[in-house]
C-alpha cells in the first residue's frame, strides 16, 4: 500500500514496530519517523493498518498516540479490521478534538495490496469520504462509501461472515455431490449457472481440480488464511452478541473453522475447510 | 410444461389423478388417457412429474406401471425431484427391460414452467441425452447433462443444499449489518460486488426494500416455498447419511427452515427465513 | 439373551443367518430351526433381534415370514431398535392376523446382555405387557412399559438422542475447562454435584483419567460404538423430519459423530467424540 | 447473602450504588459506607458481587478501588460471575500488593441466596480457601475448591455451558417423543432411569406437567432467566475463542437461547427454551 502512494508521488513519513519494515520503505523513498507520535505530528493525513482493536486503541488514544500528537485539521484514516464498536469509540475521540476520522478496512489480501486492486469499505461522513477517496484510489480499485463512522467495519465483517458461510456451503455441496457420483467440474459448472452460484463456487472453488487459479490448485497455500477468517467470524459473533442478534449459521461456521485450525490448518487458505469433510481414508 | 409441448406441435396423451388437470390439457389439444398404463402403452416417450420417490416407484415399478406397460424401445424421462438412490433403482429396472431412462429434475418454479425457462438437470448416458435434449428444450432454457443415471438428482439437491445455506447466510449478514447501523441497500450493494456475492444476495435478496422484484417485496408470496426447500434439504441430508458424509451446515439450515415452517411460514417463499431473525418487537 | 432364557429353563428353538450362532446355542441346550418359518411355526412366543427396519420388515412381513408362519395365538416381541413408524406398521400387520405384538428395544449393550442387566423399553397394550414382563425379566433388570405399539422405539431413540447430545456437551465442557487451567477430575467432581450433572459426566465421563471403569480409561474400546450412536441419531432425525419437529442440537450432534467416524473412529465407543476437540498437536 | 452473615453475628460494612439496598441492610444491623473506598478501608475481608467484568475491574482496579483502599493483610473475595481471564487479571493485581484474593462465583439463584443453600466455586490457593471456607459456609451449603485463581470462574462457566446444552437436549427429546405419541411423564420417567438422565430432566424438567415444582409448572416464572443463561454461554464462547477451543454445541445453544430471547422470553426461566420447539399452532 505504501509503495503505491510513493509511486503516486505522495510524501510519506512511516513508522512500524519492525525497523526492517521502515527501512524497506525508506529505501523506496519514504522518510522514517521514530515513533507514532513523531510520524503523526508531521502528517496532514494519517493512515494506519493494525492487527486488532487493542492496538488501534493504543495507537490512537494513548498519551503518545495519534489523536494527542497530530496538528489541528489532520485527517485520520484507519484501515485495520476491528469491531465497529471500537471503531466508533476511536472515531468519537477524534471528533472530540475536532479531527475528521474514517474507518476504511480493506479486502483483497496481500495480493490485492501489491497489485493495487484492494477494496476499501469506508465509514465516514460524505464530505470526508469525498476528500479521501482519491488517495485511497491510489492503493485500491473499489472505494465504497458505507455510511457513517464504523460502517466500513460493519460492511467488512458482514461480507466476510457471508463469505465464511458460503465457503462451507460450497464445500458440503461439492463433497456430497462427488460422494454421490458426479464429476466435480460438472457439478461446479451447474451450480455456477444456477441458484447456488456464489463467489466461493465460481471464483474460488475449494474442490481440487475445478479451478486452476484457486488456492485448491496449489495445496491451499497463499490466499486468505483460515485463522484470519476465524478472526473475522469472531468479530461478527461478538458484534452480534452485543447487538443481541442471533447468528446460528455464522456461529457454527466459526466453530468449524476452529476445528479445522486445530487440526493444524490455521495457516492454510480458508477454502481448505473442505478437507474437514474428507475421511481419513480418502486423504492423501 | 405440457402446453409448451402442445405449442411445439407434439402429440400428447395425458394422465393425472386429478381429472380437472387432464380436462384442461384436453381443451388445449391433448388426448386423455384413463390410467398410467393406458398413457404409457401409447407413448414413444414418457414424461413424468411426481411429488416424491414413493409415487415415482409406484408409477414406474407397479404391476400396472410404466415399465410394465410401454412398448419396447420407449424412452422414459422422469422430471420429479427425488433421492438419487431411488432414481437409480428405477433406472436400473428400466434398463433390465432394455428401456432407456433419464432423470431430469427441473429448477425454476411454476414461473419458469409457464415461461418455458426451466433448467433441466439430466442424468442419462450421452446418447440418450442427445436424443431427448431437443424435446426438453421445448420446455426449458438450460438443458444440462450431469452424467449417468441419478446424476440429475445429485446436481439438483447439491445446488439446492447450497442455495438453502446461502439464503440463511445472507439473512444473517443483512440482519446483523442493519442492527449495527448500515443501510440495507448499501450493504447489499457492497456484498454484491465483493466475495460474499451470491444469487441469494444479488438476485433474490431477502431483506425487504432491497430488490423490487424479489419475494421480499411482496410479503414473501410466490417463489419457492419454505416447505419445498425443507423437502430438498431433507433429500440432501438423507443422501449424506447414506453416503456417510458429514453435512453440519446443511443439517442446521434444514432445522432452521423447520423452525420457521413451524411458526406458520411453510407456504411462504424460503427467503422469509429472514423473519426468524427479527425479534417479536421489530416484526410488523 | 438366549443363554439367560435357557438358564431359566425355557425351551428355545433358534435361528440365525450365521450357522455358528445357532450351533453355539444348540450346544447350550437350544433346538435348531432351519429357517425363520420353521422357528416361528414351533413357537408360542417369538423373540427377534435384528439390525434395522428392512430386516424387521422382511422377517415379519415376508411370504415365509413370522406373521405368515406362526400358529394362531402366538405372541410376538421384536427387540430390534428401529424407527417407530416401521414398528407400528409391523405391529398393525400382526394385529390384522389377530396376533399380539410388542416392540421392546433394549439398552445396556453387549455387557448388559451378558450380565442380564438390560433395560427393555416396551411398546404394547397393558395386558400384553403384563404377560411378557416375566419373560423379559429373565434377560433384563428394568422392564419399562412405554405405552402402546411403537412407544418402546420412541423411548429408546429419545433417550439416545439426549445421550448423544449430553456426551458432546460433557466433552465440550471438560475440554474447555482443562484448556482454561482446571484439573479434569476437579471439574468432573463439581459438575457431578451441580446442575450440569448427567450420566455422561458422572458414570461414563469421556475425559481420560477421570473414571477408571469408563471406556476413556481403556482407549475407548468396548462400550457403545460411535457408528451405533450415529444409527440412533439418524433414527431420531428421520422421525423428527416425518413428525415435522425441529431438532437443531440433535442434528448437529449427528454431524459431529459423522465427522468423528470419518476420521477413523466409528468402531470406538461414542465417548471418543472428545478426541474431535483435541488439536492435532495435543493428540498422542 | 448479607443477611445470612448478619445472622451469624458478623460485623458488616455495606455499600451499593442503590441507596435503598444499603438502607435495607442497615435496618438489619449493617453499617453503611459512603463509597467503595470507604467500605474497603474498614474491612478485614472484602466480599463483592457485581454484574460483569467491567464493573469488577472498576471496583477493584480503579484509583478509588478496593485494591488501592484496603489495609495490608485484607482478604478479597469476588463472588461475581465473570470471565476467568479478567478474574486472574484482578487476582494478579491484588497479589502485586500482597493481598490474598479468591474468585468465588455462586450458583443456586436468588432462591438459594435466601435459603442459604448456594454453591460457591472457589478459585484460590489452598491456604486461602481453608481460611474463607467457614465464612462462605454461612451463606451457602456447598463450598468447593476448584484450584488456583480464576478456576472458580472456569468451573462455573463450564457447568453452565453443559447445563445450557442439556436443557435444550431434554427439550428436543421430550418434544420429539410427545410428537411421536408417548406420554411426557412416561418418557421423563424412562430417561431419568436411563443413560439420558440429567439434572435438566430429573430435577428441572422443561415439559409442562411433568414436575410440579419446576418452572414449567408455573409458566416459566422465577428460576434462572434465559438472559442470564445467555450471559454465561457468552462467557463460555468468549473463553473458548481466546483458548482456541472449538465449541460447536455450546455456540449453537447460545444462538438458540438468543432466538428465544428475541421472541420476548428473555426474562423467563431458561427452561422455557422448549417453547421454541412448539409450533405456533400448538402454543396456547
Quick tags:
homotetramer; 284 residues; mainly alpha; three-stranded parallel beta sheet; three-stranded mixed beta sheet; 13 helices
Describe this protein's structure.
The structure is a homotetramer of 284-residue chains. By secondary structure, chain A is mainly alpha-helical. Helices cover 50% and strands 10% of the residues of chain A. Chain A has 13 helices and eight strands. Chain A has helices at residues 2-7, 19-27, 36-42, 53-61, 66-69, 84-96, 109-115, 126-136, 151-179, 184-192, 199-202, 226-242, 248-265; strands at 13-14, 31-32, 45-48, 75-78, 100-103, 106-107, 118-122, 140-145. In chain A, strand 1, helix 2 and strand 2 (31-32) form a beta-alpha-beta unit. The two termini of chain A are 38 Å apart. Chains in contact: A-B, A-C, A-D, B-C, B-D, C-D. Chain A binds chain C through residues 248, 252, 259, 262-264, 276-281, and chain C through 248, 252, 259, 262-264, 276-281.
Short description:
The structure is a homotetramer of 284-residue chains. By secondary structure, chain A is mainly alpha-helical.
Amino acid at each position: 500500500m505504501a509503495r503505491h502512494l510513493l509511486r503516486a508521488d505522495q510524501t510519506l513519513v512511516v513508522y512500524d514496530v519492525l525497523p526492517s519494515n521502515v527501512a524497506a520503505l525508506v529505501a523506496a523513498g519514504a522518510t522514517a519517523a521514530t515513533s507514532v507520535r513523531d510520524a503523526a505530528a508531521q502528517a496532514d493525513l494519517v493512515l494506519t493498518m493494525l492487527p486488532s482493536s487493542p492496538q488501534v486503541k493504543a495507537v490512537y488514544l494513548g498519551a503518545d498516540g495519534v489523536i494527542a500528537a497530530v496538528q489541528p485539521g489532520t485527517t485520520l484514516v484507519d484501515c485495520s479490521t476491528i469491531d465497529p464498536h471500537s471503531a466508533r469509540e476511536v472515531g468519537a475521540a477524534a471528533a472530540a478534538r475536532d479531527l475528521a476520522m474514517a474507518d476504511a478496512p480493506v479486502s483483497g489480501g496481500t495480493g490485492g495490496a501489491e497489485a493495487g486492486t484492494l477494496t476499501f469499505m469506508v465509514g465516514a461522513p460524505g464530505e470526508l469520504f469525498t476528500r479521501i477517496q482519491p488517495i485511497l484510489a491510489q492503493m485500491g480499485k473499489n472505494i465504497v462509501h458505507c455510511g457513517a463512522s464504523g460502517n466500513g467495519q460493519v460492511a467488512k465483517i458482514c461480507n466476510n461472515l457471508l463469505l465464511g458461510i458460503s465457503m462451507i456451503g460450497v464445500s458440503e455441496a461439492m463433497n456430497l455431490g462427488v460422494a454421490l457420483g458426479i464429476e466435480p467440474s460438472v457439478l461446479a459448472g451447474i451450480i455456477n449457472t444456477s441458484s447456488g452460484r456464489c463467489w466461493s463456487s465460481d471464483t474460488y472453488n475449494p474442490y481440487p481440480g475445478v479451478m486452476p487459479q484457486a488456492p485448491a490448485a496449489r495445496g491451499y497455500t497463499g490466499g486468505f488464511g483460515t485463522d484470519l477468517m476465524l478472526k473475522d467470524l469472531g468479530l461478527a459473533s461478538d458484534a452480534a452478541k452485543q447487538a443481541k442478534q442471533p447468528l446460528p449459521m455464522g456461529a457454527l461456521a466459526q466453530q468449524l473453522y476452529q476445528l479445522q485450525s486445530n487440526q493444524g490448518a490455521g495457516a492454510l487458505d480458508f477454502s481448505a475447510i473442505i478437507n474437514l469433510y474428507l475421511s481419513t481414508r480418502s486423504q492423501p
